[in-house]
Structure formats: structure tokens, C-alpha cells
Design goal:
This protein is an alpha/beta fold. Helices cover 20% and strands 31% of the residues. It has 4 helices and 12 strands; from the N terminus they run E-H-E-H-E-E-E-E-E-H-E-E-E-E-E-H. It has a 5-stranded mixed beta sheet. Strand 4 and strand 5 form a beta hairpin. The two termini are 13 Å apart.
Length: 175
């Protein structure tokens, strides 16, 4: 897992990806006290965006299932932490050219990504790479989960009992 990231000053961030048009009932409860939400693509429609914006301010990127190439990059700085958000990375050890180019122009502390539906939390070359896994329809034996960034610590939160075990067995398989 990654290391503590300083500079948020008490800001809590909800991290979500791959909703594919579905807001799991547990998302509102887990994100009830967040100050900001980051969505890493494959949103699945404006209904999802509207629902998340009713919880907290939202930064999002569209994914390959949102009628885009899936290679968009969006940036947001929350506190002193610089986030780069993309949908398709594909791997922290070998990010896509769109991410490499963006990081060459401007550094980021955290890269949030989605697409794989696999949970990931790893520091590579001083950058934290975090995939919350999917919060949408179940796929294979993958977890249904989101991420929380609280007091400099990032964590995955399972949205159902089955996903507790799946988070453990599927973590960091994208090396």
C-alpha cells in the first residue's frame, strides 16, 4: 500500500470509478461527509454525475464507455495535493503516453485511474497510483468498492460483504 500524503488539511475525498450508470446504494453513506468527489471514468450518464454532485463537489473524467477515447486527463488540486485523473492508465509501472506527457508538463502527487475494475494502491517513482475498483455492476469476482482519502491516508471501502474478501485477493494486480 501507499504512504501517507500530507497537505489536505482535514479535507476528505471520495474516489469512485466505473459506475456504468449505476449508483450503488452504499455510495451515499460512505461519501456522506466527503468534501469533494473524484470520479475516474465510465460514469454512464448525467444521472450519476447529478447524484454525486448532490453529495459533494465533483471532478470527473469520462471513460471509454462514455463516448470518448478513455484517454482524457483532468487535474484538480485539493489542499496542497495535486491529483491527475484519467480513466485508462493502463499500469502504474508503465503509464500510457497521455499520462506520461501530462506528468512531464506538471507533476502530480496522486494519479487516480479506473477502467480495469481492479483495486490498486501503489507508489511508483514518488507518485501514488490509486484505482478504487468499480462501484457499478459486478464484474467477475472483482470487488464493488470506492476509495476514501482521509487525513492523508487512502483506503478502499467495500460496498458489500463479498467485496471485503475480493479487495484483499484482487489488490495491486496491475503491476
Amino acid at each position: 500500500m501507499g504512504e501517507t500524503i500530507h497537505g489536505l488539511g482535514g479535507v476528505t475525498i471520495g474516489i469512485i470509478s466505473d459506475t456504468h450508470g449505476v449508483i450503488h446504494p452504499g455510495v451515499a453513506e460512505v461519501f456522506a461527509n466527503v468534501d469533494h468527489i473524484i470520479h475516474a471514468g465510465d460514469v454512464g450518464g448525467d444521472d450519476v454525475i447529478d447524484a454525486l454532485r448532490r453529495i459533494a463537489p465533483l471532478t470527473f473524467v469520462r471513460g471509454n464507455n462514455d463516448d470518448t477515447s478513455g484517454f482524457d486527463v483532468v487535474r484538480v488540486t485539493l489542499g496542497d495535493v495535486r491529483f491527475l485523473v484519467t480513466h485508462i492508465l493502463p499500469r502504474p509501472s508503465k503509464p500510457g503516453k497521455h499520462v506520461v506527457r501530462s506528468l512531464a508538463k506538471e507533476k502530480a502527487d496522486v494519479v487516480v485511474f479506473g477502467h480495469s475494475h481492479l483495486p490498486h494502491d501503489e507508489v511508483v517513482d514518488g507518485i501514488r497510483f490509486f484505482n478504487p475498483a468499480s462501484a457499478g455492476p459486478r464484474r467477475f469476482d472483482y470487488p464493488i468498492s470506492v476509495g476514501l482519502f482521509v487525513d492523508g491516508e487512502m483506503q478502499h471501502v467495500a460496498l458489500d460483504e463479498r467485496s471485503v474478501h475480493a479487495l484483499k485477493t484482487r489488490m495491486n494486480q496491475m503491476r
